[in-house]
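Q: Hi! Curious about what MarR family transcriptional regulator looks like structurally. Here's the sequence.
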Amino acid sequence: MSRPDLAAMMAPIGRALVALERPILQEHQLSMWAYAVLSSLDDEPVRTQAALAEAIGADKTRLIAVLDQLQADGLIERRPAPDDRRARVLSITAEGRRVRDAVQAAIRREEEQLLAVLPAAQRDAFVAALQALHAAVRPT
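A: Let's find out. The predicted structure is below.
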């Protein structure tokens, strides 16, 4: 049986997910990039700005403004790297974790409404498949 290309099926889903996240991020005064930073810092509590930019697929020169805002809002800390004072080491603050967790919980509630069109077993399989695909294409 014929089916659309994966990209043709994923693109509208991606747009729908971005649309459901946008008001949640606005409510918490975060950009998509700011949320990506906060989410990434949870994976590794401390990393350099360059490594962070690479991990989230951001241009490191454009990321600086996002990091400046997150720091000004008290959501992250930046300090010189002990082995290279030109590099900055990033860490998420307690307030950053609180905001990230609140945003993630709200996003997950919205995602669950979208996933509710699938039976529970298909939901679990779909999420597991996305996690496997994400791991396969994620830059290392």
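A: A fun detail: The chain is about 70% helix and 15% strand.
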